[in-house]
Amino acid sequence: MAILGSIIKGAIHLKDAISTEDPPQKAQFKVLNDLLNTAKDTAFGKYYGFEKILNEENIVKAFAEAIPYHDYNKITEEWWHRVQDGYEDITWPGKPGYFALSSGTTGKKSKRIPVTDDMISAIKGTGIKQVSALSNFELPADFFEKEIMMLGSSTNLNERDEFYEGEISGISAGNIPYWFEGYYKPGKEIARIDNWDERVATIAKKARDWDIGALSGIPSWMELMLKEVISYHKADTIHDIWPNLQVFTSGGVAFQPYEKSFNQLLAKPITIIDTYLASEGFLAYQQRPETTAMRLVTDNGIYFEFVPFEPDYINSDGSISQDAPVLSISEVEKDRDYVLIISTVSGAWRYLIGDTIAFTDVERAEIIITGRTKFFLNVVGSQLSVNKMETAIQELEEKFDIEIPEFTISAVNIDGEFYHHWYLGTEGSTSNEDLANALDSSLKDANKNYKVARNKALKGVKVTTVKPEVFYEWSAANKKKGGQVKMEQVMGEEKFSEWEEFVSNY
């Protein structure tokens, strides 16, 4: 009998039974007050009059009216460049200990996002909430005695001046609670290996020494690691190596596009739990098994605002116009896309994180990620979001019984006419023409704006299939292999030209 597991599971149930949470609206008001009070004597707080905002009758409204929206470029040019130069009390009291190097999908240069001690504490706190939520998933007691494979970026952070910097997954793994170290794999020594391929090869060699019950990481890179482990041990599935594997915690991207190919590596179904850890903080996690939606963390160092996701409010670079209206969590509606705006204990203020979300349950503050502002394809009015693209890809997988774990798309001009050119990562043998026709039909049915565009200025759809590993090698060529790296799913003209040249030479 799994006595220790029963004790741990019982303790989690007891904690949940005696703990209470404020409703999201009340929790968010407290967070905003705490943020303003803590930062009122910083350079940012003085410049924007936090003291005055705190004395207003409607703090939420006064905050939104006083402070402009910031994307990374704006807040860095005006404020964070001084934080990066080592000055104190700029956008948050003191100095951050770390900078998260964003491994996102836009731009050619890594973003350096402050990570304060308060943010690390908030990430740990949300991690504990997520662990507590596991008690809702009907997992057996012995699961709570198993080890967890956390496949992130290297914990061997770079030292730059007085700061340490690396990807947020590496920073988080380097700051795990002491009591968790016994459960954490691949362990500190292997996690410090910088080279992704070397780290995965080492994991494969050691794999049989561990009793892994849960995996945590980006689906695409987790798949590659599992394939390496299976190949090294000449096994049929990962359950031949880790028979007690029962959970995969997917972070930062939707799992659904990878579901079919991922399941090929398993001997039995496992529980999939979504989380939302970004370079700017731990924003949400799946709290219950009845839904794949995630609960926003409304009581732990992050204040959320929501801009309706409309083409008129989105600039060509993915930023939002300063006159775009904003809503608090008490004003949002179900099933409507919003641009997510955050203010945090790392000194981000009304910050455009770049993601779009939709509420599936307003009362519970549960959301799904629907796409990226930068990856909203609106050439000739097609208004195509990543969420709709991923749904169309899943329909292709079902229709043709193939796996398409990766894709990218761009609007291209051919002889004066616009086309959507898709690159699909698949081993399937379906013709490009059949895939293009099916994609076009699916998107017409799901998106009236796309259908209108196809009847006017959008001439057609082109599909080119390549092997999925081409996408991973593209990331490697751009020094973005492993960790929290996400593939660009919509490319601009310049980036798409580079991609096509890469594919032609692969």
Automatic annotation (TrEMBL):
GO MF, one example: acid-amino acid ligase activity
Pfam families with a match to the protein in the record: GH3 (PF03321), GH3_C (PF23572), GH3_M (PF23571)
Domain GH3 C-terminal: start-end pairs: 389-493
GO cellular component, one term: cytoplasm
Domain GH3 middle: 297-362
InterPro entries, per database record: GH3, GH3_C, GH3_M
Protein name: GH3 auxin-responsive promoter
Organism: Pukyongia salina
